[in-house]
Amino acid sequence: MIKKTVNTVSEALNGISNGNTLMLGGFGLCGIPENCITELVRLNVKELTCISNNAGVDDFGLGLLLQQKQIKKMISSYVGENDEFERQMLSGELEVELTPQGTLAEKCRAAQAGIPAFYTPAGYGTEVGEGKESREFNGKMHILEHAFKADFALIKAWKGDEAGNLIFKGTARNFNPVMCGAAKITVVEVEELVAAGSLNPNEIHVPGIFVNRIFQGTHYEKRIEQRTVRE
To answer: Can you tell me which residues the record assigns to a coiled coil (predicted)?
Structure first.
């Protein structure tokens, strides 16, 4: 069985350079590739285009890259809780392409499946649909959306084996599975790395064929973006 393991995050991100387009899994702070983001900050790569549901918060997640002005363009579905993201967008420092959340997920899944484009009704008649080809299906107008093209997909999973088979936990599953295999190189960090063949095949969410590199992550903070408790 082919082993996809690498020893360090530095080795896992080998080849990332200025101007790359990156997919990053997660929703808010849930299921984000913390180790990979920290390494991107250390590498100080610039002019990045980042495809992610949002940009985390000011001092964590993709917010760390925004602080260092490493991101040229964000493709996401909302600004979220990140004040710096909002500031850079409104000031024109950061190019932002806001995409309906379902469309964002489908553009990832289409890339994963090798589908170049698809029609969706989401965004027709709004700024989202401006300049895009449109067509009527069953009496309803749709716009043509193209699959994403990315250099790297950076993924966080709960458990994985040396062959790259992955299991996600709870809502950390979010955008991670559809980004696997949707870029030229898929890098996965896991909380628990086990021997190839030791996972129950019936519990695997993403097969190893979609993964190029996998490594054992460390020191996960798993911050909670907003917490509401009873008095």
So the answer is: none
- For residues 96 and 142, what is the distance between their CA atoms, to the nearest angstrom? 23
CATH code assigned at 42: 3.40.1080.10
Q: How many other C-beta atoms can be found within 10 angstroms of the C-beta atom of residue 112? A: 21
Which amino acid belongs to residue 100?
A: P
- Domain housing 100: 9-115+150-216
Q: Say if 228 falls within a structural domain.
A: no
Q: Give me the residue label for tokens 């063949």.
A: 197
Of 59, 13, 79, the closest CA to residue 221 belongs to: 59
Asked if residue 77 is part of any domain, the answer here is yes
pTM above 0.90, yes or no: yes
Q: Which amino acid is at 97?
A: E
- How high is the pLDDT of residue 213? 98
Task: Tell whether the torsion through CA atoms of 33, 225, 62 and 174 is positive or negative.
Answer: positive
DSSP string, 131-154: TS-EEEETTEEEEEEEPP-EEEEE
Rounded percentage of the chain residues whose pLDDT exceeds 90: 88
pLDDT tens digit sequence for 41-100 = 999 999 999 999 999 898 999 999 999 999 999 999 988 778 898 899 999 999 999 999
Number of domains in the chain: 1
